[in-house]
Automatic annotation (TrEMBL):
<feature type="region of interest" description="Disordered">
    <location>
        <begin position="168"/>
        <end position="187"/>
    </location>
</feature>
<dbReference type="GO" id="GO:0051321">
    <property type="term" value="P:meiotic cell cycle"/>
</dbReference>
<keyword id="KW-0969">Cilium</keyword>
<keyword id="KW-0677">Repeat</keyword>
<keyword id="KW-0469">Meiosis</keyword>
<feature type="region of interest" description="Disordered">
    <location>
        <begin position="1"/>
        <end position="27"/>
    </location>
</feature>
<keyword id="KW-0963">Cytoplasm</keyword>
<comment type="function">
    <text>Functions as part of axonemal radial spoke complexes that play an important part in the motility of sperm and cilia.</text>
</comment>
<feature type="compositionally biased region" description="Basic and acidic residues">
    <location>
        <begin position="1"/>
        <end position="13"/>
    </location>
</feature>
<dbReference type="InterPro" id="IPR003409">
    <property type="entry name" value="MORN"/>
</dbReference>
<dbReference type="Pfam" id="PF02493">
    <property type="entry name" value="MORN"/>
</dbReference>
<dbReference type="GO" id="GO:0035082">
    <property type="term" value="P:axoneme assembly"/>
</dbReference>
<dbReference type="GO" id="GO:0031514">
    <property type="term" value="C:motile cilium"/>
</dbReference>
<protein>
    <recommendedName>
        <fullName>Radial spoke head 1 homolog</fullName>
    </recommendedName>
</protein>
<keyword id="KW-0282">Flagellum</keyword>
<keyword id="KW-0966">Cell projection</keyword>
<keyword id="KW-0206">Cytoskeleton</keyword>
Length: 212
């Protein structure tokens, strides 16, 4: 069903309301038969998109409310979360930063609601990867991440004014038999501390830490 403006060719053009065969509804702007411009699309499952369209695709600025209570507010390209945006998850966690092809990708900040901790740094295809800082209540970790885990050299900075340098190494089980690939993925890397120093300038590119 469609109730709204049409052009001389009879295409939906201008403002209108539509009810789709699957029960979804759209209230907004059309151009030459396509949803284009601003509009609100309500899904039968309870989800809702309010924002910009281009030729039936979410494109531009928009807010998407998901059925589980989570929401995304930000840039869309060709129906995908793409550009810059903020996602609030059902558990209250938030991610604010760059998106690429529907995934967290680039630089972004993830805040864990339960602990107040936050990850500030790189993302690749939805995973924590690259140089980053993991900030907790009274200390922080600076280093590199891969696939959601810290790897290699890094340091913990404590609010009392000191730092612990060291590196994350794969635990011993990882280096054993190659037969069982899967279980090794569950083993978190181990922190191996090297020295404690006063506060220093440091980057994940490496440096010579001062003597303790």
């Amino acid at each position: 069903e469609y109730d709204g403006e049409r052009n001389s060719e009879g295409e939906r053009h201008g403002r209108g309301k539509a009810r789709l065969p699957n029960g979804d509804t759209y209230d907004g702007e059309y151009e030459h038969g396509f949803r284009s411009g601003r509009g609100t699309y309500r899904f039968r499952n309870g989800a809702c998109y309010m924002g910009e369209y281009l030729q039936n695709k979410k494109h531009g600025q928009g807010i998407f409310f998901y059925p589980d209570g989570s929401k995304y507010k930000g840039d869309w390209v060709n129906d995908q979360r793409h550009g810059y945006g903020e996602y609030t998850y059902a558990n209250g966690d938030t991610y604010t930063g760059e998106w690429f092809n529907h995934n967290r990708h680039g630089q972004g900040t993830y805040v864990y609601k339960d602990t107040g901790s936050k990850y500030v740094g790189g993302w690749v295809d939805g995973n924590q990867e690259g140089e980053a800082e993991l900030i907790h209540l009274n200390h922080r970790f600076k280093g590199k991440f891969w696939n959601g885990n810290p790897v290699g050299r890094g340091k913990y900075v404590f609010d009392i004014g000191c730092e612990q340098h060291g590196e994350y190494i794969e635990s011993e089980q990882d280096k054993g038999e190659e037969e069982e690939e899967e279980p090794s993925l569950l083993i978190a890397p181990k922190w191996k501390a090297s020295e404690i120093t006063k506060l220093t300038l440091w980057t994940p590119h490496g440096e010579n830490p001062p003597s303790p």
